[in-house]
Design brief:
Chain lengths: ~170, ~180
């Protein structure tokens, strides 16, 4: 079993699972910035964006994780994932917290501006700006259909072997 | 012989820089803008497109946890306000401006998004709290982002609230939309 580095490195690919077609920008084949927007952790109240550290994972393993930890809760199974290098996160002054919960490859994008004295409705624009600048680095890769097996994991963005779902 | 013919500028009838003063003249301007957009093709597609998108959002996202990850419900109030803002922006933007994509957000808001390319986009987030948040990447001009209160008590106050937003969206499409089809 592979061991992930304790800290997320800039060259590590991160995946964000997508189940709604409108979370994908067809013209640019990237995921929408809204997919990278943070939400408050109900336990800690911290702003975070959930991602999967997909380095060294086979496609099959990535979608196994998705099936157990994403599809099981979402209204529909994921149709694909946005994958981008962590450097895109660091470039917009955010960080990654490799919490390993609820599965070892899980991490959160953190460091979003959050002033306790300011309501979310007056600081959301900071998050929108950062998400907009990150999103172009997250290329959309469609989920393999049943019967498509044996493809290796692609660690870098820009893979052209997949097509967008209609 | 070579003739130099100016092809730029705003010498078309509907590009007259007209600023309404009274409520009646606001209404005239709005009607004029609607007719103008209707006649220009793509802008006339805004309303059916956005109505369908909002209908889908109402169906899919009106209950708590609609995304399975704890999303807040999107209220009828938010949907109604988004429809009003859409309708208002439709009359304020240059003809040919495409309809926004309407995306439900996990915090119970709706994102209105215009995208030309990865570095040319603008998004506006609408919630039921009386503020809008917006952010845009305007190519070489760089990024902008801010929040502001909106006053939707009347069409004219809403138009005033959306002046900056309309200007930013207009910048995304300005070079292409000023031309007529041959």
């Amino acid at each position: 079993m592979h061991r992930l580095p304790e800290n997320v490195r800039p060259d590590e690919p991160l995946s964000s699972f997508v189940y709604r077609a409108d979370d994908v920008v067809k013209q640019t084949r990237t995921i929408r910035p809204t997919r990278l927007m943070p939400r408050r952790n109900p336990k800690t109240n911290r702003l975070e964006t959930s991602v999967c550290r997909s380095q060294s994972l086979s496609e099959a393993k990535i979608w196994d994780i998705c099936t157990v930890h994403f599809d099981a809760y979402a209204p529909k199974p994921a149709i694909g994932r946005g994958v981008g290098l962590a450097e895109a996160v660091f470039k917009v002054a955010l960080r990654c917290d490799a919490d390993g919960e609820p599965y070892p490859e899980h991490a959160n994008i953190i460091g979003w501006r959050d002033l306790a004295s300011t309501p979310d409705s007056e600081q959301k624009h900071f998050w929108m700006d950062q998400a907009q600048r990150m999103a172009p680095a997250f290329r959309y890769l469609a989920r393999l259909k049943f019967g498509d097996v044996g493809l290796p994991s692609f660690h870098l963005t820009g893979c052209a072997m997949y097509t967008l779902h209609d | 012989m070579i003739l130099a013919i100016p092809i730029g500028g705003s010498n078309r009838l509907w590009d007259i820089d007209y600023e309404p003063v009274t409520d009646d003249s606001h209404e005239i301007q709005r009607t004029w803008a609607q007719k103008r957009n209707y006649l220009q093709g793509s802008a006339s597609d805004w309303l059916p497109t956005t109505e369908a998108a909002l209908h889908g959002i109402r169906n899919d996202c009106s209950k708590a946890n609609w995304d399975g990850s704890g999303a807040k419900p999107i209220s009828d109030q938010t949907i109604s306000l988004t429809a009003t803002i859409t309708e208002t922006l439709f009359t304020m933007l240059p003809r040919g401006t495409p309809a926004p994509d309407l995306i439900p957000e996990s915090d119970g808001e709706i994102c209105m998004s215009w995208l030309v390319d990865t570095d040319q986009l603008f998004a506006l987030s609408v919630g039921a709290h009386g503020n809008i948040n917006f952010a845009g990447q305007l190519g070489r001009e760089g990024g902008i982002h801010a929040w502001q209160p909106i006053d939707a008590t009347s069409r004219s106050t809403l138009e005033q609230s959306l002046q900056d937003v309309a200007r930013y969206i207009g910048r995304l499409y300005a070079p292409a939309t000023g031309k007529r089809k041959a």
